[in-house]
Design a protein that fits this description.
By secondary structure, the chain is an all-alpha fold. The chain has one domain. Helices cover 77% and strands 0% of the residues. Helix 5 crosses helix 10 and helix 12 packs antiparallel against helix 14.
């Protein structure tokens, strides 16, 4: 956050001579910070870490589907350019932000973190838990880039390819993780099995609810995005 403020104020004359302070983008950026605070700094964090997997999925939705795109949307391209296009980072960025790579990394990363041993380690250790969410935020940046990129050097996809990319990312690649969490016949994470019950008495029902939140709410969010992209495509055509 402080780096962002430094870039858009003190360093703005060097990074983008003649550019005014990006008020609208700053509003989006700090909205993303606010959503991140909702996920990490409110009772939702303790509820998700100690009691309910379904609350944890709400936390992940806030990070992955709201905070990350707002932070990208709120960052001017002249801030991204020196960060991603310097001679050290550019080859890595251009590789990671390719659509196929971005989609695979995002979904593979989420799947690995949901392995019971790894996931439960985060629930037992707050440092690991916060690191997990930092990884999720990074993976979400990568995932959103092909449809939100402000840089012509690493451009966003065309409208048609954006629709295919979102469909593949939100539906095809997430089915295995959704299916395992939702339809498992036993509780996958011991922390939630042994937790004091809050709101949802049966931990298996909590796990089913978590899977539905992961998939259904995610599909609603992606569905709205698909509609927006389609009508933008229609209007420009």
């Amino acid at each position: 956050m402080f780096g962002y403020l430094l870039a858009v104020t003190v360093l703005r004359k060097r990074l983008a001579p003649g550019e005014a302070f990006p008020k609208r983008k700053a509003m989006f950026f700090f909205s993303g910070i606010f959503v991140l605070w909702l996920a990490e700094g409110t009772p939702l964090h303790d509820l998700s870490e100690r009691y309910l997997l379904s609350a944890h999925m709400v936390q992940h939705l806030l990070i992955n589907y709201f905070s990350a795109p707002l932070l990208i949307w709120g960052t001017p391209e002249w801030v991204f350019r020196p960060l991603l296009l310097n001679r050290f980072v550019r080859p890595i960025a251009k590789g990671l932000l390719q659509p196929v790579v971005a989609a695979l990394i995002f979904n593979l990363g989420l799947s690995i973190w949901h392995f019971p041993q790894i996931y439960d380690a985060g629930l037992r250790n707050s440092t690991v838990h916060h690191f997990q969410h930092l990884i999720f935020l990074t993976l979400s940046f990568i995932s959103w880039w092909p449809v939100m990129s402000p840089l012509k050097e690493i451009p966003r996809l065309g409208y048609g390819m954006q629709i295919l990319y979102i469909f593949a990312t939100s539906t095809l690649l997430q089915i295995p993780l959704f299916g395992i969490v939702t339809f498992a016949d036993q509780v996958l994470y011991p922390t939630y099995q042994n937790a004091a019950r809050v709101w949802i008495e049966n931990p298996l029902n909590d796990q089913i609810m978590a899977g539905l939140i992961m998939k259904v709410l995610g599909m609603i969010i992606y569905g709205i995005l698909l509609a927006v992209i389609f009508f933008q495509w229609y209007n420009e055509s």
